[in-house]
Amino acid sequence: MPTLNVNGTAREFQAEADTPLLWVLREQLGLTGTKYGCGIAACGACTVHIDGVATRSCVRPVSSVEAGAKVVTIEGLSPNATHALQKSWAALDVPQCGFCQSGMLMAAAALLKAKPKPTDADIDDAMTNICRCGTYNRVRAAIKQAAGVVA
Amino acid sequence: MKGARSTGATAPARASETASQMASQTASQTTAQTTSQTTSPRAPRRLSRRGFIGGAAAAAGTLVVGFHIGRPALAQAAAGASAAGIPPEVNAWVVIQPDDAVVIRVARTEMGQGSLTGLAQLVAEELECDWAKVRTEYPTPGQNQLRGRVWGSFSTGGSRGIRESHEYVRKGGATARVMLVQAAANEWKVPAAECVASNSVITHEPTGRRTTFGKVAGAAGKLTPPADVALKDPKDWKLAGKSVKRLDTLDKLDGSQVYGMDFKLPGMLNAAIKDCPVFGGKLKGFDAAAIAGKPGVKKVLRVGDSAVAVVADTWWRAKTALDALPIEWDFGANANVSSASIAATLKEGLDAPQAFVGNERGDARGALASAARKVEAVYAYPFQNHATMEVMNATVLITTNAAGAPERCDVWCPTQSGEAALAATAEAAGLPVAKCDVHKLNPGGGFGRRGAHDWLTQAVTVAKQMPGTPVKLMWSREEDMTHGRYHPITQCKLTAGLDAQGQLSALHMRISGQSIIASVFPQNLQNGRDPATFQGLNASGPEGTFGYAVPHLLIDHAMRNPHVPPGFWRGVNLNQNAVYLECFIDEVAHAAGQDALAFRQKLLAGSPKQLAVLNAVAERAGWGRPAPKGVYRGLAQIMGFGSYVAACAEVSVTDAGELTVHRIVAATDPGHAVNPQQIEAQVEGSFAYGLSAALYGECTVKDGRIEQTNFSNYPALLMDKMPKVEAIVMPSGGFWGGVGEPTIAVAAPAVLNAIFAATGKRIRELPLSKHSLKKA
To answer: For labeling, which of A14, A31, B162, B281 is most exposed (least CB within 10 Å)?
Structure first.
């Protein structure tokens, strides 16, 4: 049976090779924090990290994830929601319906890893997730708060 | 939310409940698993979530048994007794556990707008409980039916969550407080008048004796509720009116919030569906044999007369098999309808002799005929999809009796209207309402779409063909985009008359187009007239008082209903009416050679609340003072959903036509502001949603079907285009207005008026993406 390293654990799954990683996570491994939004990598709700890189999992065939690759989902972003972004998100009451927020947080976490002190332009480039409720301004403020840059 | 976390003491008990207890609670009176786990604290939240999904999965049989034993539990709970270790309620709104944890029941749906927290604040304010100990839960609409609608309406739309229920939820909290105090007084054998409640503690003032809510809740629940209770004057509020944190944030930060699409039952199968692409068309047939060998496929089913579903072990397999299924449709008579043919129908209505009158004073036609000068313009507003981030879905289980006949139908779904969902379930299942229930899950966005239950009817119709097997039906994004309940399409012809002094003497607004009420609630038409069409344009009332003093006014509606189904939408009729009115007022001011603010101020002299929000944004934005170089301003104001709103937009447009919305100043007077920081969040969100609609939002029709299929061709505003939003929350007291929707209406007209200031171009047909702003 094929396996994936997800959130630090080797997990076995059964799925056709062309099944997108998203559906293996959601339907085989029970990790439903990663969301289906569009299925065409347009909205970012399905964003996970593969070896630290923000990846839209809805168009990524599971067979293309290399055997040694480390997949991290929102459930594995930190123990007990202690990532600096999860803390700043809570402090600023960022989520509304919350559905897009897993993808937002994963995209933001990858951004801060690559650019610990992001500019507004860096944030605009990295954060192309769709939020229909309209949390964008609080998302931006929370990224800056977590990064310790002036809002 | 430090406080809410500390309520964890209550959750382990819940988490350690056996699966059968959990199952019995599913149908019982006092528990709503969905929100209680939403708001319970960190560690226990995890336990309780496992209990919810995994635990239910471990209890396949008992879950079903639970439904059968649900009734006695209901009766017991209604009597305030404890069934299966469930703590008794003080009243329908308040449960207090022995460890002082406070569970507040909320009937309205939380879909991001924050009213779950706001409603809990109102109950807690009167209850005098410790806010740090509060969590919430949803009662079910089935329980509401059984208890004589003790929780009132479950409907969550029209920004009515708080403005419609504030009084009875506060009374629920106040009544519970009186009963708790009485129970303590009884125990101490002292007059209740000598006892006060504060922060979940009751004190006998003469002696200083103290007890807690948790210690007397059991006794309080057995008392006869007082006939009437006095409510606090809002000026004495300590918790309501304060910017406390939301109660439902933490689960949204680590993936543990269970949305409809995340819900799971033991043995559950998954269904994907395709409805006829042309509204009104039919399903002719399909070749199930062609996909019979696909992995995981269990069944291919006809759903009603227009749809086909594939049921498989996983949704991805169901969806891929459905995509490979040969399907034959009968597109029917609507297959030749297009956006152009719909526009022609609406255009005809602009000058049609017959129209329903919405607001009339004086003799507008006569005054226009004799006006010194006339200004005329035609505007148009398109179909728009809600595009909630979470697609439509529902999980349904129909259980059978010994003879194999359907006996009971339970639904787990995100819905904005629990009672309407229950009615739709019963109808589709062919069972009495008492044999059905709806267990609400938090939605990934609503915006009005989840007030219609076409998708639920489909899900029940699928499950009915698979009795005993739980089935989750979920739409693809493409299905969601092409089978919406769209923002209604309208056009509007506006004619203004100016007198010799350049004063607005007459105005005729002729709206032509679609009626939501005619499609959704035809029984609510008034002799054929749809009153909701005139939102924001009425002579009086909370659904939008036309504020401008125009001596001769006529606002009428030629109803033209295309075949594309309309629905309520965030802001809905107020959106297009504010574009029509506020852009046109700008045009008239310009034609009269007057400042856009001064022109409005004069006309609003008799409408102080409208004037106040307008003045507030003008002052904050610096209207009349120079804007930064290359930046231009536009104004808009409107009243709707019981609230007064205004906005000033600052934009710039490059020579190449690239628009930047730099800054929005927005003012809201909702009467009372229960949680100002959440109102600010709603105002900000209104601009994200409203600017998405104004900039890109259009669903076009070709061959009878919607052409847009995903976010690739129905784009949404992204972070890089989101303006800075400065919200001014200015509650003036004395009335209760809504918050989630009114502000959307001023987003588009404020920006369009600023674009005119920047470019001299009047955009009269949305969305903006259809037009070039390039310098000529």
So the answer is: A14
Mean pLDDT of B431-441: 98
Strand B134-137's sheet: what is its strand order? B89-91, B94-96, B102-105, B134-137
CA distance B736 to B402: 52
Q: What's residue B416's pLDDT?
A: 98
**For every residue of B444-473, which 3-state class applies, written as one string?**
CCCCCHHHCCHHHHHHHHHHHCCCCCCEEE
Which residues of chain A does CATH 1.10.150.120 include?
79-147
B31 or B540, higher pLDDT = B540
Query: Could you tell me if A75 lies within 8 Å of chain B, comparing CB atoms?
Result: yes
pLDDT of residue B87: 62
d(CA B227, CA B308): 54
Chain A residues 31-60 with CB within 8 Å of chain B: 31-40, 42-43, 45
pLDDT digits (tens, 9 = 90+) for B557-600: 999 999 999 999 999 999 999 999 999 999 999 999 999 999 99
> CA B371 to CA B498: how far, in whole Å?
6
User: Is B762 within 8 Å of B587 (Cβ atoms)?
Assistant: yes
CA-CA distance, B90 to B93, in Å (whole number)? 8
pLDDT bucket at B3, cuts 50 / 70 / 90: very low
Cβ–Cβ under 8 Å, residues A49 and A72: yes
Look at domain B351-385+486-770 and name its CATH class: alpha beta
The percent of residues above 70 in pLDDT, for chain A, comes to 99
* CATH 3.30.365.10 at B2-252, yes or no: yes
What does the pLDDT look like over B362-383, one tens digit per residue?
Answer: 999 999 999 999 999 999 999 9
pTM over 0.90: yes
As a whole number of angstroms, the distance between CA B16 and CA B31 comes to 15
Question: How many Cβ pairs closer than 8 A exist between chain A and B?
Answer: 182
Among the listed residues B111, B74, B552, B574, the one whose alpha carbon sits nearest the alpha carbon of residue B360:
B552
Angle, vertex CA A69, rays to CA A66 and CA A74, nearest 5: 125
**Which residues lie closer than 8 Å to B516 by C-beta, 6 or more apart?**
B488, B530, B532, B566, B567, B568, B572, B573
| Of B142, B194, B197, B209, nearest in space to B173 by CA | B197
- State the smallest CA–CA distance between residue B200 and chain A in angstroms: 26
**SS3 call for A71:** strand
Fold exhibited by the domain B266-332+387-482: Aldehyde Oxidoreductase; domain 4 (3.30.365)
Average pLDDT for residues B113-124, to the nearest whole number?
98
pLDDT tens digits for range B528-553 = 999 999 999 999 999 999 999 999 99
Fold type of domain A79-147: DNA polymerase; domain 1 (1.10.150)
**Residue range(s) in chain A whose domain bears CATH number 3.10.20.30:** 3-76
Taking the CA of residue B675 and the nearest CA in chain A, the distance in Å comes to 12
Residues of chain B with CATH 3.30.365.10: 2-252, 266-332+387-482, 351-385+486-770
Q: Which of A145, A113, A147, A105 has the alpha carbon at shortest distance from A129?
A: A105
Query: Using one digit for the tens of pLDDT, what is the confidence trace for B148-203?
Result: 999 999 999 999 999 999 999 999 999 999 999 999 999 999 999 999 999 999 99
The pLDDT, as a whole number, for residue A150 is 77
Q: Contact B315/A80, CB-based, under 8 Å?
A: no
CA distance A95 to chain B (A): 6
